[in-house]
């Protein structure tokens, strides 16, 4: 009889060990750690302990993620409060740069808007406007070959990753681009979750429209 047949029989007839309790008591299995013979009861205990350790590790990981999300949520809240308090463009821009560079530890930040009366209009090409308008959500990935990397001047040559966040009005028209960049290749990697980046983009969009006092129109393609 094959091992598979024995396993299938025991699975289909759980009452077997009720009738042959002595067999169950005498059965031994090799300890996976020491190789010595142990009883089935000990084997079950080892298995349960391994499962507990696995669950504890997963729980610790979830707690870590939860704490990290709480910390990020607190930073986003502080940014939102500061944006609400800002009453002019200069203060608004200073708030965005200082919070992203400070609380969020983003080493390089650049902000540009168009189709609005603003001091942030320089160095925005039609190519960038069309690119930003086509973004459905923040784009994270390598900084190489991204036109907006030129906004960082001499630092551009050292940047390895960036997040590009489109700024939109209430009608969905794109009127700006918020760019965060880093010398670390894995800071803004392509698979990075963008939930908080989207929220930051939404807040910055609403705040900038409020202080600039204009409703942008979508750029022509």
Automatic annotation (TrEMBL):
SUPFAM superfamilies: GAF domain-like. InterPro entries: DUF484, GAF-like_dom_sf. This is DUF484 family protein.
């Amino acid at each position: 009889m094959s091992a598979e047949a024995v396993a299938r029989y025991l699975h289909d007839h759980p009452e077997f060990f009720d009738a042959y309790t002595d067999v169950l008591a005498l059965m031994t299995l090799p300890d996976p750690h020491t190789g010595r013979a142990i009883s089935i009861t000990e084997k079950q205990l080892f298995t349960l302990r391994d499962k507990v350790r696995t669950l504890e590790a997963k729980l610790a990981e979830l707690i870590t993620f939860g704490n990290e999300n709480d910390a990020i949520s607190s930073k986003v809240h502080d940014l939102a409060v500061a944006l609400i308090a800002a009453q002019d463009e200069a203060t608004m821009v200073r708030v965005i740069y200082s919070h992203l560079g400070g609380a969020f530890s983003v080493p390089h930040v650049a902000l540009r808007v168009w189709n609005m009366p603003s001091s942030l209009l320089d160095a925005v090409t039609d190519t960038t406007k069309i690119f930003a308008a086509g973004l459905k959500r923040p784009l994270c990935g390598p900084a190489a070959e991204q036109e907006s990397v030129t906004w960082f001047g001499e630092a551009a040559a050292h940047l390895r990753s960036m997040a590009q966040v489109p700024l939109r009005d209430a009608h969905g028209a794109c009127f700006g681009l918020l760019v965060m960049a880093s010398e670390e290749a894995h800071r803004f990697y392509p698979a990075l979750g963008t939930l908080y980046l989207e929220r930051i983009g939404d807040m910055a969009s609403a705040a900038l429209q409020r202080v600039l006092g204009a409703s942008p129109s979508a750029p022509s393609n």
